[in-house]
Amino acid sequence: MELANLAKCLLLGLIILWIQIHGNKGCFETERLALLDFKEFVGSNGLDVDYLLSSWVDNSTSDCCKWERVMCNSTTGHVTELSLNNTRQYDIESISFYDDENIWFAKFSMFQQLKELRSLNLSYNRIGGFIDDTGFETLSELKKLEVLDLSSNYFNNSILSSLNNLTSLKTLILSDNIMKGSFPSKGMFYLNSSLRTSD
Ligand SMILES: *[C@@H]1O[C@H](CO)[C@@H](O)[C@H](O)[C@H]1NC(C)=O
Ligand SMILES: *[C@@H]1O[C@H](CO)[C@@H](O)[C@H](O)[C@H]1NC(C)=O
Ligand SMILES: *[C@@H]1O[C@H](CO)[C@@H](O)[C@H](O)[C@H]1NC(C)=O
Ligand SMILES: *[C@@H]1O[C@H](CO)[C@@H](O)[C@H](O)[C@H]1NC(C)=O
Ligand SMILES: *[C@@H]1O[C@H](CO)[C@@H](O)[C@H](O)[C@H]1NC(C)=O
Ligand SMILES: *[C@@H]1O[C@H](CO)[C@@H](O)[C@H](O)[C@H]1NC(C)=O
Ligand SMILES: *[C@@H]1O[C@H](CO)[C@@H](O)[C@H](O)[C@H]1NC(C)=O
């Protein structure tokens, strides 16, 4: 009997220790690397990422949960929210924000590693399409993704079918894109019926 209690105490102690060690260690390495992939991608568009994402440093001792635009669950240490709105920090009031040359082609497969991501804000990035042909399909591995804000980009209807696979989505914001024409008849089939889109 006493032995069982001792074992329980030890187990509790170990759990507390694990949480403490984990808390000090900060974010998960796979998630840190995924975010650095995004930073590299932004940089590959000729942008000064050491200014735009200055806290996102490539240093294994750097806790990505403390980086700007990143939010983690403080218990699990997983990245849960990314505010990648207006990554280029344009003056969105200016006319030049709407220049065709600002249209960006993106790749989102790197976010696949962020398994606990709940909210992804990609608004005001003037994204017009993808450099791979999977579109948003690769995000289908994110089983907890509930909020996806794609407003103020340059997406057209062709992205809708690649949003099909995002089965956990509850809020999808597509306002201020170029969603001309009708929704594809086969599209949006798998999206949860409780989904709220805002236009
Ligand atoms: C990484 O960060 C630590 C703590 O801020 C610093 O002491 C170290 O010099 C950095 N390493 C590199 C390679 O920048
Ligand atoms: C953090 O994660 C834990 C375990 O999954 C969950 O119970 C808790 O609600 C989460 N906290 C927040 C603020 O989402
Ligand atoms: C991103 O959006 C948040 C609100 O969701 C806002 O506080 C922040 O200033 C925005 N960042 C940029 C660079 O616009
Ligand atoms: C995304 O960021 C914009 C600001 O850039 C903000 O207006 C909007 O509310 C954010 N979306 C969500 C879902 O928080
Ligand atoms: C819609 O966007 C895709 C890229 O996502 C592009 O290839 C296609 O030309 C666009 N279609 C129209 C009608 O603009
Ligand atoms: C997305 O869903 C389609 C069926 O609608 C399926 O054929 C495809 O393999 C899925 N893609 C991923 C990456 O899960
Ligand atoms: C749709 O979302 C609701 C509310 O979150 C959830 O209860 C339900 O299981 C979901 N349905 C599917 C098919 O994922």
Rg, alpha carbons: 20 Å
The fourth-level CATH homologous superfamily is Ribonuclease Inhibitor
Helix/strand order? HHHEEEEEEEE
Counting H and I runs of at least 4 residues, what is the number of helices?
3
> What is the level-2 CATH architecture name?
Alpha-Beta Horseshoe
Please report which band the strand proportion falls in: under 5%, 5-15%, 15-25%, 25-35%, 35-45% or over 45%.
Answer: 5-15%
Look at the structure and give the mean pLDDT. 85
User: How would you name the oligomeric state of the polypeptide chains in this document?
Assistant: single chain
Helix vs. strand class = alpha/beta
> Overall 3D geometry?
elongated
| Strands in their spatial order, largest beta sheet | 1-2-4-6-7-8
Q: CATH class, anyone?
A: Alpha Beta
Query: Total domains, how many?
Result: 1
**How many E strands?**
8
Distance between the termini: 63 Å
Helicity level: 10-25%
Instruction: Give the CATH topology.
Output: Leucine-rich repeat, LRR (right-handed beta-alpha superhelix)
Report low-confidence residues grouped into runs of 5 or more. none
Bound molecules: 2-acetamido-2-deoxy-beta-D-glucopyranose
Please give the largest β-sheet: 6 strands, mixed
Task: Summarize, please.
With 199 residues, the chain is α/β, with parallel strands linked by helices. It has a single domain, classed as Ribonuclease Inhibitor (Leucine-rich repeat, LRR (right-handed beta-alpha superhelix), Alpha-Beta Horseshoe), CATH 3.80.10.10. It is built from three helices and eight strands.
